[in-house]
Amino acid sequence: MSEPDRELPPVVEDDAAMLERTWGDEPGIVGWITTTDHKRIGIRYLVTAFIFFLAGGVLAALMRYQLSRPENTFLSPDLYNQIFTTHGSNMMFLFAVPVTQALGIYFVPLMVGARSIAFPRLIAYSYWMYVGGGLMLWIPLFLNNGPDAGWFAYTPLSEILYSPMKRVDVWAQMITFTEVAALAIAVSLVTTVFKMRAPGMSLNRIPVFVWGMVVQSFMVIFAMPAVMIASTALILDRLVNTHFFDTERGGDPLLWQHLFWFFGHPEVYIIFIPGTALVSTFVTTFSRRHMFGYLAVVLSLVSTGFIGFGLWVHHMFATGIPQLGASFFTAASIIVAIPTGIQFFCWIATLWSGHPQLKTPLIWAMGFFWVFLIGGLTGVMLAAVPLDIQVHDTYFVVAHLHYVLIGGTVFPLFGAFYYWFPKFTGRMMNEKLGITSFILFFLGFNITFFPMHILGLHGMPRRIYTYLPETGWGTLNGLELIGVVLMTLGTLTFIVDAWMSLRAGVAAGNDPWLAGTLEWLTSSPPPAYNFLHPPTVAGREPVWDNPPDQPVVVGLRNDVRDVLVTHVMDGTPDHRTEFPDPSKWPLLTAMATSALFVGSIFTPRAVITCLLPLFVTMTGWFWPKKSGETGTQPWPIEHRTLPMPNEPPTGKAA
Amino acid sequence: MSPEPAVHTLRERKVLDVSMLAPGGFGYRSLMWWGTLGIVLIEGTMFALVIGAYFYLRSRNAYWPPQNIAPPDLTWGTLNLFLLLASAVPNELAKKAAEKIDLRAVRIWLVVCLAFGVGFNVIRAVEFLHLNVTFSNDAYGSVVWTLLALHTVHIATDVVDTGVLTALMFKGPIEEKRFVDVEENAVYWYFVVFTWLPIYGVIYWAPRII
Predict the structure, then answer these.
(1) What CATH number did the domain enclosing A196 receive?
(2) Chain A environment of B141 (Cβ under 8 Å)
């Protein structure tokens, strides 16, 4: 037990009350702005990403309505271009990646049994940058300045000669905002998983979902720099007259495609690896048994992460690359199906040998099996150069990518909302409404997107705002509109369910699904400090595997934000470290960064001008509170040295 | 006091008592080291990609550098190479001092590092003037300037955050974890120094010998 603080009243508070004082936020708006609680920020991220999902869905519906009959004049060609570019950019950069990372922010610390996430202020900063990126994309759209060169902004179309307005600049800096946000989360999550696991959680006991987030984070770390470099080079070409992509002066438009797809292909895996890891989680919980082939599943995730970096040129088969290159990238594109296939067999084996309970999350996972499998199969087809060239830039590719991305991420995400809603709120969602929303969404999805395969084979190109009646594409496009209506009803059912359950759902208790991972050990919703007594673990599913007398961690101070740091490999206790208090500086730093990014598209001088506020806010962030306040009391004298890497846990021998 | 966290029974519940663990640790034990590693991976990838873009563009051009453009002058870049490498000495001494929790030595060597840092930023400004090409001339100029500017952002940032850290180590409050910050600052400094080796090679020697 810690010694009572000098300033505390002589009455000894109990542990929970004291922890609440230490880890809780200030009430009201101040607490809302300054919080570094990973659960509050995670929820905020989830809700914001869901709003972007709905907004992007509205754009999709507008496009489907425009295309539902030939020679429709509902949208002008120019507005149509802005809408499809904003839809794609929004769904990739503001929805799919952030929403999966949001689940990581909320659940990774809980699932590894930690009191917080590593670098909590960085997570707060990340959220504000993400909001900045969202505003950067959506406000210009309403000012008739939305990006209009496609979500991949190919040069030379996106160069200043062909896109003279600010639209492409807006797109390029939106990228910078969202990538900064994503990279910050990736570094925090990797550190949390490697260094803050509960004692006993060796590498082979890390939950599959957490492994998925680790692989995703590493992919973010290696892929996102490519798009930042690319969009920076693009904006330099546009604003200060460099010539990266300008053939007249020694540049090359294909450099853009290489840099963009070096990011863009791993992006697909960044988006669906957490989805497959979610499916493993539901399958394990609702089969009531440990994951079949845990090692194979984890290695599949890791190898997908590696192979995912060797495929980018398959987006460029139509650019006339050398045949040897094409063959290599075809082979790699087919190989990447193998680890995903292994995961499928492990899911089947787990369900087969378990006692599956068809609760809503597992039903969404079943939808995932069907949809994602079709997306994967058309992916193998597209890996073949002749077929790829034949259907390049047609609706076949649109069908494929929506089967992969919606199948791989949106279905598991809806499952995740149902699965973890009790943990977020302490209340259950309604099973009947859940199944209704699944049926509507599943039917709607397939009615919308399956005909696109056929339209693509019939030659309907992407990114056209209308077509002639003689093409014969009208019937299927009209049918797709019905699918859109069903998907919308499915989503609305989900929202109604969430709203009603939030107000009047059945109380959930700690572990309504009788699941095995650590987040179910604590209350629903969890307290600010996550665990009253941080757990130790004796198995892969600690709630199932821990013996009744499994020790809990004691001895962390509860008058400061003290967290336990453990060893990377075996998760044995190493040292403790004190985490920072809530702070206004992440928000202020994000505002300074935003001013720099936004200003840079108007004048290079803004970059110089904004360095000062950036310096001031970052220094404010780093600078410790004044001596005498909580957390700066001297430690006991025997700890006046700190252990070196190769020393035993307690530090230098006295 | 036992050297390992002890398992014993308290209030009928087995507990793992971690109260005797140290309040921090150096090197890969610390969270800060892992955070620094993440940043190094991100920025190292950026450097690698710009170097990749350099050679990609080179493969697309018959003349590299373009005709009538001389390769960058060697003098200033090479001088900076030696200065950056020499800064590894005070940097290592600052790191060692931090690991010994020796506040006096930490202050001295941080100030020396800072002096080196200001030095190579000044020389860097001169380097830009001796590239013999502007960024708006052609793709060669664009990529050379971008590569040099990207590295300059790093040496400038490193000097600024070393400056803030030095101010903190003089002004206080001093806690043990600040010494971990000094150590991680040194690790990042090494990253910035050693990335200059390939970048220097690309900017100054690739146009000459490849």
Answers:
(1) 1.20.210.10
(2) 242-243
Tokens of B197: 């080796």
Distance CA B105, CA A485 (A): 70
Q: How far is CA B153 from the centre of its chain?
A: 10
H or E segment and range at residue A231: helix A208-239
Q: Do A619 and B164 touch (CB under 8 A)?
A: yes
Task: For residue A461, report the phi and psi dihedrals to the nearest 5 degrees.
Answer: -80, 160
A:B CB pairs within 8 Å = 229
Amino acid at A502: L
Local structure of residue A406 (DSSP, 8 states):
I
Q: Which residue's entry shows tokens 């905020």?
A: A44
Q: How far is CA A21 from the centre of its chain?
A: 31
Within 27-66 of B, beta carbons closer than 8 Å to A belong to 27-31, 34-35, 38-39, 41-43, 45-46, 49-50, 53, 56-57, 60-61, 66
Q: How far apart are CA A59 and CA B159, in angstroms?
A: 47
**In the structure, how many helices (H) and strands (E) does chain A have?**
22, 3
- Interface predicted TM-score (ipTM): 0.93
Residue in the block written with tokens 């360095």:
A611
CB neighbours of A267 closer than 8 A, spacing ≥ 6?
A: A92, A97, A223
- Choice among A94-108, A306-320, A629-643 with the minimum mean pLDDT: A629-643
Q: How far apart are CA B109 and CA A638, in angstroms?
A: 26
- For A256, name the nearest residue in chain B, comparing CA atoms only: B53
Q: What is the pLDDT of residues B140-154, one digit of tens each?
A: 999 999 999 999 999
The SS3 of residue A6 is coil
Hey, which CATH number is domain B23-209, 1.20.120.80, 1.10.4160.10, 3.40.50.720, 3.30.300.20?
1.20.120.80
Give the DSSP letter of residue A162: T
Q: Do A644 and B27 touch (CB under 8 A)?
A: yes
Is residue A342 included in any domain, yes or no? yes
The residues near B108 (Cβ < 8 Å, ≥ 6 apart) are: B97
| Rounded CA separation A209/A103 (Å) | 10
C-alpha to C-alpha distance for B65 and B139, rounded to whole angstroms: 10
CA distance A135 to A594: 11
Tell me the per-residue pLDDT of B30-89, one tens digit each, with 9 for 90 and over: 999 999 999 999 999 999 999 999 999 999 999 999 989 999 999 999 999 999 999 999
Count of alpha carbons within 13 angstroms of residue A206, beta-carbon side: 30
Domain count, chain A: 1
Q: Which residues of A touch B185 (CB under 8 A)?
A: none
Identify whether A260 is part of a domain: yes
